[in-house]
Amino acid sequence: MSDAAYRETVLDGETKFDGQIITVERWRVRLPDGREAAREIVLHKGAAAVVPVDQQGYVTLVRQHRVAIDEMMLEIPAGKLDFEGEDPFACAQRELLEETGLQAGKWQKLAHVVTTPGFCTERIALYLATELRQSAPRPDADEFLGLLRLPLSQAVAQVFQGKITDAKTCLGLLMAQQALGAPLFRSTPEARYPRQHQGIWPRAQKG
After folding, report:
1. Considering the chain, what is the average pLDDT of its residues?
2. CATH 3.90.79.10 domain residues, the chain
């Protein structure tokens, strides 16, 4: 069966919210069977993220509080494009320097992925950065970041243990490990049979 049997056609739409980072629109679409339906869509300029791995095989992660889920998160350095159509590679270089103070002599593009295609247009370009040199971080005025440097293999293990849960970070770490030719899975029982990590999202709590 061809794709046309599943494709939705946008008929019209209206803007419900126009913010600095996202725009929310309500679209009217025609379904493959001819009926009409509403779709709530978040428009996003896109982003870039970097897995910086040094000569010792250590990766630098950013630790920050994400207020939307009220959790402290470990993430690879990342940031949104400054404008629609910006080169994601330029964004990746900028964010790596601003958040960690690192500059890379060698870059490899890992993937360009969609984050939540059910309702959002965001795409994130993922890069591996090596041959690193350190300078001073230059975070934005509203960013409060901590840095954690740990072996890439340990960071990958934390993905399987449920300790690192940010999606772009999980994918970036796994792809970087593979790209560098290291074993994707460690042989420790803890990595093979990961423990579930209990979140602290207050809105998920009952009572």
Report:
1. 89
2. 47-192
pLDDT value at position 198? Answer: 42
SS3 200: coil
For residue 87, what are the β-bridge partners?
A: none
d(CA 144, CA 23): 25
Confidence check: pLDDT of 145 > 80: yes
Q: Which residues contact 72 (CB under 8 A, 6 or more apart)?
A: 63, 64, 65, 66
Record the pTM.
0.85
CATH topology (fold) of 47-192? Nucleoside Triphosphate Pyrophosphohydrolase (3.90.79)
Task: Give residue 14's identity as a one-letter amino acid code.
Answer: E
Per-residue tokens: 35:
């009926």
**Contact criterion met (CB below 8 Å) for 132 and 102:** yes
Tens digit of each residue's pLDDT (9 = 90 or more) over 162-187: 999 999 999 999 999 999 986 655 44
Contact 152, 181 (CB under 8 A): no
With a cut of 50, say whether residue 16 has pLDDT above it: yes
Closest CA to 64 of 142, 138, 151, 162: 142
- The residue to which tokens 């725009």 are assigned: 23
Bridge partners of residue 165, in order along the sequence? none
Nearest to 47 by CA among 86, 101, 97, 100: 86
Least confident of 87-101, 109-123, 125-139, 176-190: 176-190
Is the CA virtual torsion 174, 175, 176, 180 positive or negative? positive
